[in-house]
Amino acid sequence: MRPLYVVGTERNVGKTTLCIGLIHALRERGLRVGYTKPLGQRIRTVEGRQIHDDALVVSQVMGMTAAESTSMAVPLTRGRVEREIYDLRTPELAEKVSAACRQLRREHDIVIVEGMGHVATGACLGLSAAEVARVVGAKTMIVGGGGIGSAIDEIALCATFLEARGAELTGAVINKIWPEKYRRVRQATAKGLDNLGIRHLGAVPYEEILACPTVDQVAHRLDGEVLCGRDALSSRVCNTVVAAMEAHHMVSYLKHNSLVITPGDRSDNILAIISTYMLTAEADPAVSGVVLTGGFRPTGKVMELIGESGLPVVLCREDTYSLAAKLRETVFKITPDDNERIRAAMCVVGEYVDVDSLLETLRE
């Protein structure tokens, strides 16, 4: 069976999440599944093996052994891309990628290869998604973002790039479609892709849980100190509010699992947040956690009330603007201990991706 190369129309379109779901769906069909992400820049060293951050997550989440998930064939450490451009060794690098995939293919029924960034990423080294898919003998599946016109156009552009460089396209999946528009978008994109001769392999609705980290994950990202509320650190963050206004104005912005960022010396805001949390905690919580900035630690009665509320509170030294900007730029990946998101990834692929049609194309 041919390997499947999963590529995206852009970064953070959901490739890793779909790979997790695909591995689960293929295992359910009795197949031995191998996985690799052969190129990338976010590198970890684990037991002497260099592995991409995303590949580490996938292998841990899916309980994969070292034999099921290979090391990175071409780890792009800082400065390496620039050096390689001046001393281009595309055949040598391509052979490393090909050898890693051949090893997996010998031991598995199917191999999933995850691309980095968008389809052209790596073209500077002669290793775009098209070149890599071709050298490993894979068929490609494009993952595009939700929408109609823009989604179809972006997939068409990527398909043209892939096919112009000799890669075979098996089809496309539309991901992260707003639920209220799902039926309309699914029908329109299926027709639009059919007009272009591209197989429509699935339309996946936006699942809030897949985009919402826990307070604990946020605390780790901000390198913050958890002051209290450890029992509720698994609460989801679905909305972020920067409390840079008077307390009575701020309260109107608190809705559905908001993470509130406020200076630690703003006792008025803190008390208003606690009050809102206590009033809504049993229904649809308006607040899931608080980040106190500037290194200001509440004292006295305020700290006592925080502790009694059970609300997760994280103390950080950085200023409010810097922390808000850091969170805005962060994409919170699924972690091995986040069972809710893992189950959600498995469920959306099982329900909304035509895995059986995909398998048929890989057998052709």
Secondary structure layout plus pairing:
Blueprint: E1 4-8, H1 15-28, E2 33-36, E3 39-40, E4 43-46, E5 49-52, H2 53-61, E6 74-75, H3 80-86, H4 90-107, E7 110-118, H5 129-136, E8 139-145, H6 149-164, E9 168-177, H7 182-195, E10 200-205, H8 208-211, H9 215-221, E11 225-228, E12 239-242, H10 247-250, E13 258-263, H11 267-280, E14 287-293, H12 300-309, E15 313-315, H13 320-329, H14 339-352, H15 355-363
Parallel strand pairs: 1-7, 1-8, 2-7, 3-6, 8-9, 9-10, 12-13, 13-14, 14-15
Antiparallel strand pairs: 4-5, 11-15
Helix pairs in contact: 1-2, 1-14, 4-5, 11-12
Question: How would you sum up this structure, described in words?
Answer:
By secondary structure, the protein is of the alpha/beta class. The chain has 2 domains: 4-210 and 335-363, Rossmann fold (3-Layer(aba) Sandwich), CATH 3.40.50.300; 214-329, Udp-n-acetylmuramoylalanyl-d-glutamate--2,6- Diaminopimelate Ligase, Chain: A, domain 1 (3-Layer(aba) Sandwich), CATH 3.40.1390.20. 43% of the residues lie in helices and 21% in strands. The protein is built from 15 helices and 15 strands. The chain has helices at 15-28, 53-61, 80-86, 90-107, 129-136, 149-164, 182-195, 208-211, 215-221, 247-250, 267-280, 300-309, 320-329, 339-352, 355-363; strands at residues 4-8, 33-36, 39-40, 43-46, 49-52, 74-75, 110-118, 139-145, 168-177, 200-205, 225-228, 239-242, 258-263, 287-293, 313-315. Strands 2-7-1-8-9-10 form a 6-stranded parallel sheet, with helices on both faces. Strands 11-15-14-13-12 form a 5-stranded mixed sheet, sandwiched between helices. A hairpin with a 2-residue loop joins strand 4 (43-46) and strand 5 (49-52).
